[in-house]
Design brief:
By secondary structure, this protein is α/β, with parallel strands linked by helices. The chain contains 10 helices and 9 strands. The chain has a single domain, classed as NAD(P)-binding Rossmann-like Domain (Rossmann fold, 3-Layer(aba) Sandwich). A 7-stranded parallel sheet has the order 3-2-1-4-6-7-9, with helices on both faces. It has a two-stranded parallel ribbon with strand order 5-8.
Length: about 280
């Protein structure tokens, strides 16, 4: 599937993977529908797309966890431009912490934004896509945390495993309508989400934690790299989209030869616990 001349909805378009994907998709001739909760930064993405010669059909600042706001946004888009051809759920937040530290509000926020947000978008935009009868594609950006038992990721993984489940069902439900589904599972990505991620019960200014975050960022892929992987996945109608070899290799071992995966998760867990205990 080619995205040239297709209308492409991208959430989380103000920064990180969403912004990079918007710029890359526009460069390939897509006509964009953009949204993000951050109004000023979203306007910046719109300006950058247009300055590069791209087309933004519609943009609006909203919180995807607000189902009514998503429905109103969809109504505006459909009234002006008809059904979109591609839906990309990129928006997300991240909170990490041990079960002793995580509070109810942390769990709820992860599920509301990372799972219910995409569900709101899918519910508002996919049925009109089906009715239009022109096929299309759905992209759900999950995480390596949708595959692995990463330490301190219980709340985040609850939302991302849920999005993985939604995607697994829709890949078959939507096939009869000519609509492909891609589940994107990035590993480390150097985005503003790294800086904004909440680590409950941990002082991010502690030198040991800063060093740990620095190691993560040195290993991380750029948003532009992830955007290229996403667009390639759409073009090839690929369901599982990995953005780094380590995630693909880890997923293989988890399925086929699990003991190295289990050992790695235990070692990583022990390491993070030791770092936190040494604060």
């Amino acid at each position: 599937m080619e995205i040239r001349d297709r209308s492409v909805l991208i959430t989380g378009a103000a920064s990180g993977i969403g912004r990079a994907t918007a710029l890359a998709a526009a460069a390939q001739g897509a006509r964009l529908v953009l949204t993000d909760v951050a109004a000023e930064r979203l306007a910046g993405t719109v300006r950058d797309v247009q300055a590069a010669g791209g087309t933004v059909l519609h943009s609006a600042a909203l919180d995807v966890s607000d189902g009514d706001a998503v429905e109103a946004f969809a109504a505006e888009v459909h009234a002006a431009h008809g059904a979109v051809g591609v839906v990309m759920n990129v928006a997300g937040i991240s909170t990490w912490g041990s079960i002793e530290q995580l509070q109810r509000e942390h769990w709820r926020a992860q599920v509301e934004v990372n799972l219910m947000g995409p569900i709101h978008v899918l519910s508002a935009f996919v049925p009109p896509m089906i009715a239009a009868g022109r096929g299309g594609h759905v992209v759900n950006v999950a995480s390596a945390a949708a595959l692995f038992g990463l330490p301190w990721h219980a709340a985040y993984s609850a939302s991302k495993f849920g999005l993985r489940g939604v995607s697994e069902v829709l890949r078959f439900d939507l096939a009869r309508h000519g609509i492909g589904v891609s589940l994107v599972c990035p590993g480390a990505v150097k985005t503003p989400l790294v800086a904004s991620a909440v680590i409950v019960g941990v002082d991010r200014d502690d030198p040991k934690i800063k060093k740990l975050i620095g190691r993560f960022e040195r290993h991380a892929k750029s948003p532009e790299h992830v955007a290229a992987c996403i667009l390639k996945g759409v073009r090839k109608n690929k369901y599982m989209v990995y953005t780094s070899p380590d995630t693909a290799v880890g997923a293989f071992f988890q399925r086929v030869f699990p003991w190295p995966y289990e050992r790695a998760m235990k070692q990583l867990n022990n390491y993070l616990v030791s770092v936190a205990a040494a604060e």
